[in-house]
Design brief:
With 166 residues, the protein is mainly α. Helices cover 67% and strands 3% of the residues. The protein has five helices and two strands; from the N terminus they run H-E-E-H-H-H-H. Keywords: Membrane, Transmembrane, Transmembrane helix.
Length: 166
């Protein structure tokens, strides 16, 4: 066998293995995303109290609920398998126990969203409008943790927890 044929075979095998790896990654990622989207978990591993139909509804209260779910899931996921790894001393690294009070505040926020959904027209829109900045504060937490040094982890989580409870 000539060296040229061996090189072509090696390249072909590497290309096939790379393609299989990419396909497996895409399939696995889609499966995990669909599983979470269909679940009733508000905080990963803890079911919420919102109606099940909110998982794919486009009603304003359902969209706020979905934003809360994905934001807290990002906080919990933190540095796990991002496309770009966080800095070594990033506040995104830390124990899950740091998130206990935040998780409770997230359930409180979701309960406020559920209660707002029971209101009528303008009153519901006003209350949901007041809750939107709280949801935005939760959504920004992962980025803040990513950029901050680990010594600020507790401070950032506590500040967001306080913002959700106001």
């Amino acid at each position: 066998m000539s060296v040229g044929v061996v090189i072509v075979l090696v390249i072909a095998v590497v290309a096939v293995l790379t393609l299989v790896g990419v396909l497996w990654f895409v399939r696995d990622s889609n499966k995990r995303i669909r599983t979470f989207a269909r679940s009733s978990d508000l905080v990963p591993g803890r079911p919420g109290r919102a109606p099940a139909e909110w998982a794919d509804s486009t009603a304003p209260e359902a969209l706020l609920h979905q934003r809360v779910r994905y934001a807290i899931a990002d906080v919990h996921r933190g540095a796990v398998a991002p496309a770009v790894p966080p800095p070594a001393d990033s506040a995104v690294h830390g124990p899950e126990s740091d998130l206990a009070a935040l998780d409770d505040a997230v359930f409180g926020l979701d309960d406020e969203i559920i209660a707002a959904a029971q209101l009528s027209g303008e009153e519901r829109a006003a209350v949901l409008g007041e809750l939107e900045p709280k949801v935005a504060a939760l959504e920004s937490l992962t980025g803040k943790l990513w950029d901050a040094p680990s010594a600020r982890r507790r401070e950032l989580i506590d500040a967001t927890t306080s913002a959700l409870r106001r």
